Amino acid sequence: MTTVPRGALADAASPDPMRAEWTFDPWTERPVAASVGALAVLAMWLIIATSGFPWLVTLGLGAAAASPLWAAFARADCRVDARGAARRGVLGWVHRPWDGIRRIDEVPAGVRLSTSTQAHPLEGARALVLPMPGPRRAELAARVRECWRLHGR
Fold it and tell me: What is the pTM of this model?
């Protein structure tokens, strides 16, 4: 996939006129949160590395400890189109088809696409958060809602 400039939308010649692509860089958008997240991961890795576990256990614990915080400091490429919404993070693409989305909520960094009509304890693991660059957040959030309305609801 080609690299899309931060906050840029897909070009108008795209077969799907509602298609949008953008990149969210937490170091540009939320530098304090990115720094805190990165320092927290480094501190956890230091504690785990000095705990004396076997190296394979150390690697597993390090990955498990860091995974909830990756989104705080790792760049995310996002896309919405007729098929659904997707976000590429550290481990690859996560895709949600529109017919599986039951609710869209505003969150501080963008929108959360939920698979449930009501909030529940597992929503953090099941929902897909699409972070959006600040200057384009309102436009991109409206585009996501319009795609959902046209293709899923």
Answer: 0.77
